[in-house]
């Protein structure tokens, strides 16, 4: 039976043609033949420019933008998707969205960290938004993996550099490898390329390891997590916890009322074509 996954990016995908195209191609390669990944980005006009980092480096603005992720998750379930994927390292509103939905909800960073722990004893993360390093450390602790987290460091280049490097990536790959070696010297046995654009750039150019230390494909990790959780639900009825403050599920009618009260029901994510 086929699987439909709602992919939610922190970017306005329609503003980022080369990245959007590379992302679509990567999904086509990684996902099962019967998995359909429908790409969604943030609503038009969310940011002043095409670069979300100017906002999401602030906890307050990221919280506000995270409401789009929550509203999109509700829409994904209402539209019959089998899983909802928060496809960005900061994982805005992951815990809250998971408490609202009956379908599986996966997070980019969480999936990457869990897989990293199966490949090595300790992992490190490379980011191109300096301020995210603190958030990544906090998320690692929230996921219960703080003791296996070496640290998060700046990779040595920026978002705009990644977008420009899709045609000629050799310089950025060399910088990534140098930065990875510094994490390896600190004890990292798995490297997670933090933001999704960096992940796509490395994956499409076959960067699988640095000096024998694996470079994790974080996008592939959440795709496979989503597929697995849908399979498990269909096979055995397995679902997320529904007890306690962080997991109890409110009445869905009330959720729709609250979303409407705050005007979140009028936000529409930009949609891309599914890989195929």
UniProtKB/TrEMBL annotation:
Offer an example of a GO molecular function term for this protein.
amino-acid racemase activity
Q: Which domain of life is it from?
A: Bacteria
List the InterPro entries: Asp/Glu/hydantoin_racemase, Hydantoin_racemase-like, Iso_Racemase_Enz_sf
By its UniProt entry, which Pfam families does this protein fall under? Answer: Asp_Glu_race (PF01177)
> Could you say which protein family the record assigns here?
Belongs to the HyuE racemase family.
Task: State the name under which the record lists this protein.
Answer: Racemase
